[in-house]
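COMPLEX REQUEST
Ligand: NAP
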Amino acid sequence: MLTGLNAVMIGGDARQLEVIHKLAELDASVTLVGFDNLHNQYGGVRKAELSESLLHEADAILLPVVGMDDDGKVESVFAAEPVQLEEKYFLSIHAQAVIYTGIAKPKLRQLCQDHQVRLVELLERDDVAIYNSIPTAEGALMIAIQNTDFTIHGSCAMVLGFGRTGITMARSLHGLGAKVKVGVRREDHFARATEMGFEPFYTQMVSEEAKQVDLLFNTIPSMIVTAQVIANLPHHAFIIDLASKPGGTDFRYAERRGIKAMLAPGLPGIVAPKTAGRIIASCASRLIMEDFTKRGDEE
Ligand code: NAP
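STATUS: Structure written out below.
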């Protein structure tokens, strides 16, 4: 349980509702900042304005999945304006408090480093990334189905990258009856992809491999679907780029060649906010509990 723990949640979207619910269930005291339009139905949860004293009292500070931008703004779908997290607030955070965020942009990392505040990036964790790959793959399949006039079953699908998202994507496509080619750069990934029934190739060969591809799913966060690759794709092929912005596709050339290509960021929060929220809530609450218990043992 988190009895006696003060959590301050600043901004967010529908996913944070699951986190609030979980923390309230565990008996934490939760203060919401930037939730003016939320009808509060949780016991032990109150709303407040951001202040130095509020952050000074906090044991856990929770930011949205996208964190804080480099101008110090924390977006909230529950308020008309973003919350402005100025440097002075970091000075008031006490030494044992922890900031939990999905991802951290450079400014947040820098402020935490300058003021010796521990920062936890939940999306960096393998467990969260693997759970998140499920709604990501489902969302990518949805986009593929909506944008093509052929079935995934019987099509030739290429997945670039064999990490946490790539493996789930390849397995989902395979389960639907696609022929799945997987672009890897490591021998162990080549072996594993073979064992799983896919057709692996090394990414240096991506242009040659592109010739028969109907659907291309990229998870590599650097330029890989180059003009040369796109030039070899059949005209009806569809590219779904899942890698973080700006993706790994030459979108300009795809448009010029008349090949449909789409950058599809943030799918878990779009197609399954409740599940995505539960993934964050479960991980964040576990980590907060571990940190809180450790602190109690030390004191
Ligand atoms: P990951 O586990 O690190 O997987 C990335 C894969 O790309 C690894 O297999 C890596 O190979 C490979 N790779 C990286 N650079 C490469 C290169 N230059 N050439 C060949 N292979 C390369 O990451 P992830 O969690 O799957 O996430 C992948 C991307 O998807 C990230 O950009 C992430 O932000 C994004 N993402 C998007 C969504 C969405 O909704 N669209 C959801 C989740 C994640 P090695 O193993 O050899 O390093």
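REMARKS: The mean pLDDT is 95. Residues 273-298 form the longest helix (26 residues).
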